[in-house]
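Lecture 7, part 2: worked example. A protein chain together with PBG.
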Amino acid sequence: MHRPRRLRRSPTLRNLVRETKLSPHDFVLPLFVSEKIDNRRPIASMPGVFQLSIQAIVDEAQRARDVGLQAILLFGIPEKKDEQASGAYAENGVVQKALRAIKRKCPEIVAITDVCLCEYMSHGHCGVTRIDGDHFHVLNDETVDLLVKTALSHAQAGADMVAPSDMMDGRIGAIREALDADGFDQTGILSYAAKFASVFYGPFRDAAESPPQFGDRRSYQMDCANADEALREVALDIEEGADIVMVKPALPYIDILWRVRERFGKPTAAYHVSGEYAMIKAAAEKGIVDERATVLEIMTSLKRAGADIIITYWARELAEWTRN
Ligand code: PBG
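Predicted complex, written out as structure tokens:
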């Protein structure tokens, strides 16, 4: 009787038939630039991640390029917040200044910017809010107007791609139209298309100093129970002009990632978020799991499930671990 051979029994042949291979080009490094600090400041809930000054972020961008990463994702922490999020679209806002500085020193790195208002709003919500009694509303269209201004100012400062993370309706189409009208038809849009309301964003809100001062984000971010709705969200964003669609968080939503990649065949990104990062860091620090092996297994799973691009706070280490 013919007995099937299993290549995985041989270490060398195992690699030959490996279906999913990681490389530095799979990863995007998120970076936090703050107007309030001089050099770098550690983020307590995210060991190994720092808020950076403009000078420090330029150095980080160069380091990212030197280890073989193609792209970074920028978040800004302004000196002052207000009710109009004016720091988000100021010509000399923190992200705009950082972009110009990065592009001067390191023009070849792809600079993607998070387009959202929560870091710039005194109340920490992702949009313009109105309070009626004990309810609050996020005003969709007023918010979209400010997001358009923000995206445009990022493009003018040198962003290669803008990444709206707010989950307002119609923002992708509005941003696309404004970019095209201003001559930025080459500027791409990475849409946070299926962004779930998640406890896993907790540490990020420390990092970006953006926890909501009242209420929560469930009126604009998605319910973790809904998969078909996620597909509808992605379809709308593609129709409106998204170039890359993102699922966020990553591992708890790996089924969504798979379905999005299968259904639409668009470049698809997964955001392995702050809480996912912090959990593994904490377990590794206690000696419960091996950090590198855990991270490599998770990233391989995300890529196998359909991620063309993975945004992760381990991007720099991953570039080193996956170079050969
Ligand atoms: C801004 C934004 C958030 C994240 C990315 N962009 C926070 C939020 O929606 O509360 C989370 C990223 C992470 O947790 O690593 N809206």
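The chain has one domain: 22-323. The domain at 22-323 is CATH 3.20.20.70 (TIM Barrel). Keep this in mind for problem set question 3.
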